[in-house]
Amino acid sequence: MLTKVTEGIYLLVVQYRGGMGATNCYLVKGENGYTIIDTGVYSQQAIETWQKVLDSGIDVEKVVLTHVHQDHIGLAKWFQNKGVPIIVSKIGLGEMEKHRHPDFEKRMTRLLKSHGVTDVPKRLDWSNIYQFEPDTLFELGEKVKIGNEWYETIWTPGHSYDHFCFYNREKKLMFAGDHVLREISPVIGLWEGEEFNALQYYLDSIDRILQYSTDFALTGHGEPINNFKDRVLEIKDGHEKRLEQIYKIVKDEAKTALEVTLEVYGVVKQKYLASPFMASLTRLIYLEERGIVRRYEQNGVYTFKAT
């Protein structure tokens, strides 16, 4: 079940239906047991997968989370109930509290409707996986021990506001989470139902991550990355091309984020798909903040048009 990635680091792929379809979870060997980086989504299949790992005799020292999206934090509470300490950033705890809030779904529904989604789909209730208190919180710039070695924590908001990468300067090794992926560009979204300029955060984080010389990056989904700098620049270039495309779409006519999504990604009319919609919305907000497009409101629904 475990695949050796490099000396002392093993990969467990936790599969599930929907979304990315699988999450990479890493086990890093240490004197006191293994440090797990991310747990995968909460599901019976994932529980059975991890239980087989534990039954094989592997001792787990702690779980460290890159961010608190459902497919990364899903089994953290389950591990904690087994006596395994959970470590997350202080910023991540703040995001967890948003998911616990009873108005979370109402907030998300308001956001979607205000940007043109008329038929808001019923979402799975993930609130239960956030109903626990982490054992340890790390601050910005604080190092975290993973296995036997200390890793720098790099705050990389964008894909999620609380996202962190973990970097070993001596080995030039990075656990990149969902900040940089090899096969696809990470989706930048407003997953807590609150508007802010998430893409600006992401592009700033992309520039920040280039300051770290990285020979090998282990990602939250898909294959590891060897040519890390080239891949980062490729993702950045992809965003610039999408921004130019969206600008052209709203150059002559005001459109909602959903209408822009339909033109960019060609999805079925009036069908809401979370990732394409969020990618379009955050790009429109970015262009608005730059003064390149302007927002209009009519009957509680926003449209955007080039200035």
UniProtKB/TrEMBL annotation:
InterPro entries: Metallo-B-lactamas, RibonucZ/Hydroxyglut_hydro, Sec-metab_biosynth-thioest
One Pfam family linked to the record: Lactamase_B
Boundaries of every Metallo-beta-lactamase domain copy: 22-221
SUPFAM superfamilies recorded: Metallo-hydrolase/oxidoreductase
Top-level lineage group: Bacteria
Name of the protein this chain belongs to: MBL fold metallo-hydrolase
Species in which this protein is naturally found: Pallidibacillus pasinlerensis
UniProt lineage: Bacteria, Bacillati, Bacillota, Bacilli, Bacillales
